[in-house]
Structure formats: C-alpha cells, structure tokens
Design goal:
Strand content: 15-25%
Bound molecules: pyridoxal-5'-phosphate
Radius of gyration: 21 Å
Number of strands: 13
Shape: globular
CATH superfamily of the largest domain: Type I PLP-dependent aspartate aminotransferase-like (Major domain)
Largest sheet: 7 strands, mixed
Number of helices: 14
Number of domains: 2
CATH class of the largest domain: Alpha Beta
Distance between the termini: 12 Å
Length: 351
C-alpha cells in the first residue's frame, strides 16, 4: 500500500482542520436540550439567516433532519413523493416508513431532477383512487444536489415549476439540502434564493463543509417548534453540543467559498477520465463535486477496479452500478492528477 491515500470515496471523509479543532476547543457550551447552548443558538440563527427562513433547528445528522422533517410535515398513511433514487427513500434504513408511516410514490428520473409534469403525474397516481381508498399526498421532497444523480443541481426554474405544482395542491415541499451550498456555488446564487422556493430545507455540515458532526433544518417558526418535539422524541436533543456546532460555524466562515475548488477538481477528474480507454464518464461536465463513471470497458468488475485503485492509494466507491468519485477539502488538484495516473495505469494493464 502507498503511504498516502487519496480519499475520493466521499466528501464525508474530511477531517477537521487545525483551525476548526481550535474553534471546537474554544467553544462556549451549555445544555442544548434545554435550549441553553450559546454556540448552538448562534449556529441556528446563522443558518436561519443564511437560508432566509424564520427558524432553524440543530440536529446531529442529515438523516435525522429528513426523519424529523417528514414526521413534522406528514400524517401516517400519507404519500411522500420523491425521486426514485432520493436519499430519503433509498439510504435512510426505511426511516420515513418506520417513523412517519408514509407510503412512497417515486418519480423515475435520470439524474434526480423532475419536471412539474412528472410531479403532476406522480400525484395523480397517488389519488387515482379517491379517498378513503386512496390517500392524500403529504409531502414532496427534492434533493439539492442530487447525490445518486451525480451531484446534479436543480436549476431555479425547475424548482419554481415543482414548487408551483405542489403549492397548487397545498402540499408542502421539503428540500434535502445536504449539499445545498455546492448547488449554490454552481448556480452562483445565494442559499436563501434557493431555499425561498421550499417550505423546509436543511444543510449538512459533514459533507463538503468539512465539520465532524451536525446538520441544521430550517423553516417557519411553527414548523420548527413542532420539529423540536420530534428531535427530542428521536433522541436528537443533546447536551453540550456547542463543541460540535463550533465546527459548523467555523465551516461557514472558512469552507464555503472554497467549494468552487472542489467543483474545478471534479471537472478536471472528469475530463481526464474521459480520455482513458475503457472508461465512460456519465457526466462529462459534472455539476458539482461528484464524478460518476463506468469502468466496465476495462474488462474488470467494479470491485476489481476499486481494489486495484485502492492498491494504488486511491479510494473511490461503487454507487448505482457505477464508480463514484467525490472531491472535497482533503483532495488537492495534485491528488486528482495522481488519481488519474493510477486509473491510466490500470487501463494500460498495469497494477
Ligand atoms: C449524506 C446525505 C444525507 C444524510 O446525511 P448524514 O449527515 O450522513 O446523516 C441525506 N441526504 C443526502 C442527499 C446525503 O448526501
């Protein structure tokens, strides 16, 4: 094994920087569960302002943000409409079903972005048989950026169209904004501009923002007040959580502007991979920090390809039948070039 590993497995692999660790060490803390942790309060206020929402709630993970949001918006037996590969229905261990008792109406898309007509059709399927046989649509979820869609960005017009469609039926619209700030970087708009289109939204601090713990859900004062109860119920209310929230505040100050570098590195990787024999890049120009590609043209299984890469010191992952590489603050431009060299060697039949 080479002594350095290039961590393209996920943007969750980031380690707190020395500056972030110093901020964490210096954090003022209190009892978060009682609403008395000053650093958590500051973070919630800061995120509410960033997202242009009236209130925000600190939670330990993004998964819990979705769990709490779905629970707060819906009643058991409601339908939840989401893209068929959305994290909330594919990668949360069935939490929406267990905690909220919703049925899922998936929308089939290529990259996670659906149109108003597709949403319309999904809602029509749900109510095809009238109540009491059919069920109400309780919530529509969009994912910005769409993870399994390759870090795909919802353009504002597409969001406007689905928001209008949901609003026309008085169905709330929730955004899984795990990587919302990556989307904003790509779109060149503020987070509030995107968030204005949805009723609730959360951001994850443990993806490209590079903090070790934490996510913040935002919405109306009334929504957040109800969400707080479910946070307690699901065991998400903490004690001296300011140590973690301090890492998130540090990330907002230091790690947002640099997301553009991650996107440049992903583009560089995609361009380089496109030139390698046997590699087919799914999105030649990635929207954000993810590159999905097909390496089956090399005559190797995905597992074999990933193992050979790992032997060369490059970690990527398999996702949805493809290989996924994710850039983040612990991956430099030089690392991208080293990763490309490793892929070229595998393509040429070397180790
Ligand atoms: C990572 C991720 C989540 C879950 O966030 P955690 O903080 O890992 O629980 C939810 N949705 C999307 C799109 C994600 O990428």
């Amino acid at each position: 094994m080479p002594d350095t590993v290039i961590p393209l497995f996920s943007d969750t692999e980031t380690r707190p920087t020395p500056g972030m660790r110093a901020a964490i060490a210096a954090a003022e803390v209190g009892d978060e569960q009682k609403g008395e942790d000053p650093t958590v309060i500051r973070l919630q206020e800061r995120v509410a302002e960033l997202l242009g929402k009236d209130a925000a709630l600190w939670l330990p993970t993004g998964t819990m943000c979705n769990l709490v949001a779905v629970k707060t918006h819906t009643r058991p037996g409601d339908a939840l409409v989401a893209d068929w590969m959305a994290h909330v229905i594919r990668a949360e261990s069935g939490g929406a079903a267990l905690a909220s008792g919703v049925i899922v109406e998936p929308v089939r898309t290529e990259r996670g972005i659906f149109t108003a007509a597709e949403l319309e059709a999904a809602m029509a399927r749900v109510v095809a048989v009238p109540e009491p046989y059919g069920q109400p649509v309780g919530l529509v979820c969009v994912e910005q950026t769409h993870n399994f869609g390759g870090g795909a960005v919802w353009p504002l017009e597409a969001l406007d169209a689905v928001a209008a469609c949901a609003r026309a039926r008085s169905v709330p619209l929730h955004m899984d904004g795990a990587r919302l700030l990556n989307a904003c970087t790509a779109l060149g708009v503020s987070a509030a501009t995107v968030a204005a289109r949805v009723d609730s939204v959360w951001v994850d601090f443990t993806k490209g923002l590079g903090a070790p713990i934490g996510a913040v859900l935002a919405g109306t004062v009334e929504f957040i007040a109800r969400a707080r109860r479910y946070k307690q119920l699901f065991g998400g209310a903490m004690r001296q959580a300011g140590v973690a929230a301090a890492g998130c505040l540090y990330a907002l100050d230091h790690h947002v502007d640099r997301l553009a570098e991650d996107h440049e590195n992903a583009s560089r990787l995609a361009r380089g991979l496109a030139e390698v024999d046997g590699i087919e890049v799914r999105t030649a120009a990635p929207d954000t920090n993810m590159v999905f590609f097909d390496a089956s043209g090399l005559g190797l299984s995905n597992r074999e390809f990933l193992d050979r890469l790992a032997a060369a010191g490059v970690r990527m992952s398999g996702a949805g039948g493809a290989i996924r590489a994710v850039t983040h603050l612990d991956v430099s431009r030089a690392d991208i070039d080293r990763a490309l060299t490793a892929v070229r060697r595998i393509s040429a039949g070397g180790a």
